[in-house]
Amino acid sequence: MENKRLNIFLLIPLVVTFSFGMDSYIPFIIVIKSQLNLSASIVQLSMSIYIFALAVGQIFIGLLSDYIGRKKALYLSTILFMASSVLCGFSTSGTQLIIGRFLQGIGACGLRACTYTMVKDCYDGDQASAYLTRLYSAVSLSPMIAPLIGGFVGGIWGWEAIFFMMVILGIALLGCIYPLPETYSKQTEKTLKQHFKDIGAVFRDKQILFYGCLSAAGITAMFCFVSSMSYIILLQYHLSQEYIYLTFVICGIGMFIVGMLSKKIISSLGSKQALYYSFGVSVFLLIIMSILSLLGDLNFSMYVLFSMLLISIAIILNGCSISMGVASRKTLIGLGISIIGVLGYGIAAISGWVLSLLPINTFSYGLVVGTYYLFMIVISLIAIKPKKAIIN
């Protein structure tokens, strides 16, 4: 590990951006649907394509950061995020919006992947897990703040202004990147072609595959919640848009509290136990939630409570999965973290697409997310047996 230390306050804006890009325009998805004359499936695709870009972009950004360094990759990702935000703001059709959202997701994934990789460059074991979960707690600020800011800006200047606001955010990110140290030290000089050959080797690492799939469980829970929440609140519970903001704030507070307690939880239980306990509790919550939904007994307050607990626990699940997935690797850490991201966001995007094919309600939400959690139980028992991670 490098002896360099990272200022968490400079990293927080970098990891919040990818979540901010997903959350800030959600209050206006119905307005966008109406003004651009789009179908509900196209609007849903504008969210899913962002997550899909986060997935597929991971592997290339991770590869790039192992080739040119973390800071240069951060600069390139920020510039792409800004340029694509301009494209989204000037969109006059669904095609333009989807292309812009895809490119925006690529830029956002670079910010996420490089930031987490810098943490793994400098820290190891439980210390890395605690640091990563603290960053996830910062991400929890986005569901509280982004819809409120997006709602305020969009309410005054229109939904297009939300994307132009992200350009201003990108300028601020450049200022955060500049003082950060370059944490990557090349151990051997490789050509770009040799780096591409490394992809196959890392994809064969069962430890990365296993923990990447575990990370996907938490990301799936978060994304399916965010993408379905507006429909559930407005159409299933027949409540006003103000309840969308309220739900974001409540869930964000829960995520923030869990994130702040994560260091103590991981120090007490260890990364592995914290991960498996969080997964087990999540399965229990999903089973109860699905049963109550099927019986018609899940009221709005219970929906918010179960969702808050589920996505808050996902913070620990995601942070520990990333750290443990690359714990035993000495090289290609950036690529390893990126492949974990590919699995996490790729599976989440597919799950969101499946959810869009169903009647969007609380039962469908619990069914889609719960099915993947149960699938992971089967995988962990009979399919993938990872090597023991090096965790203190």
From TrEMBL:
User: Membrane-crossing residues?
Assistant: 7-32, 38-61, 73-92, 98-119, 131-150, 156-180, 208-237, 243-262, 274-294, 300-320, 332-356, 362-384
State one molecular function term (GO). transmembrane transporter activity
**Which species does this protein come from?**
Francisella frigiditurris
**Where is the protein localized?**
Membrane
Q: Which SUPFAM superfamilies match?
A: MFS general substrate transporter
Q: Which InterPro entries match?
A: MFS, MFS_dom, MFS_trans_sf, Sugar_transporter_CS
Q: Its domain of life? A: Bacteria
Q: Provide the protein name.
A: Sugar (And other) transporter family protein
One Pfam family cited in the UniProt record for this chain: MFS_1
What keywords were assigned to this record?
Membrane, Transmembrane, Transmembrane helix, Transport
The keyword Transmembrane appears for this protein: yes
A cellular component term from Gene Ontology for this protein is:
plasma membrane
Swiss-Prot/TrEMBL GO biological process terms: xenobiotic detoxification by transmembrane export across the plasma membrane
Q: What taxonomic ancestry is recorded?
A: Bacteria, Pseudomonadati, Pseudomonadota, Gammaproteobacteria, Thiotrichales
Coarse class of the primary localization is: membrane
Q: How does the protein's chain sit in the membrane according to the entry?
A: Multi-pass membrane protein
Q: Where is the Major facilitator superfamily (MFS) profile domain?
A: 5-388
Report whether Metal-binding shows up as a keyword of the record. Answer: no
